[in-house]
Amino acid sequence: MEISETLAAGRAAQELRLRRGEFELATQLGHVRTVGGALSGRRRVARGEVERLRRAAGFPDALRERVRTVGTAEGADLMDISPGRFTRLARAGYLVPVRFYLNRYRAVVWLYLAEELRAFASGEPGLLRGRLPRTPTGGSGTTAEGAEEKAGEDCRPRNWRGRRIGLLLHESDDRWERAAIVGSVLDPLQLAELVPDPYERASLNRLRPDLAPGRPGSEAGREVVQRLLTADDPDEISWHRSSLTALLADARRDRQAPRPNDILPEPVGAPEPAPPLEPAPTPELAPPQAARTSVAEREAEPVPHGGRGRPLLTRLRIRRGRDREAAAVSRGGGADG
User: Fold this and answer.
1) Residue 291 has pLDDT above 70, yes or no
2) In the chain, N or C terminus with fewer CB closer than 10 Å?
């Protein structure tokens, strides 16, 4: 597809009347189809996709409602349960968050899709009243042993990581990108154990996705976010290690990770011989007689000086010549007289 037939993300969000966060979530959930690599470049939206969504019934409110997120208080209100019961359901893994942020106190605030909460309330009415069951419901694909038995464990970070990775894998067809997505939740030591080749690890780190854009500025806030981005449950770690091993096998069959020689235009070898220098122009030779200048002529040549008139040496020579002539005349005159 030509670039002229696609729109940048900002322009597409404007035409779809979505805020930036809403547009990002719409693309992640597949409500707005994009083109381009998931990690290797900025994704764009085809003009036809924008027109399709604009022609849909209820635009733009229907589209915005599909990506509307709510917190604990609003979510509990939406499901007609208490915030405490909502939190217990979420911690047990029955409600899966779609994103999070840190508030001013560096506390994690989880956000859920309003559309999913309504669907859960209508599909699992038994979990909204009375005692919470001790058997798994399977509503969110979790294998927790019931909300009461899982009260001490918080499944929200794990479920968010799994959901985020799944959405990114859905966007990418590149095998090395897919391996980088799964490996992004493993700590560096485990990644080094599974990927001993330093060039492969460098390729995975280069393709590593930003699971949570907009990191906090404070060091304490970044530490909180980093803990949420790293798998810590043994079952979760085992699952991602197995997935990464399989994805790496596919990626290696597809192509080799870039090596230094692949980046250089030519392999490093013996240096090429330097191009021959152009011969310098031959100076014109002086006439032969110029090389046979007599000593007397060289002595008569003027000597540079800083004053005006004749050089001092020349004046002395002339004066000595005149003195010799005068002396000769004087001697001759004495003989005649």
Assistant:
1) no
2) C
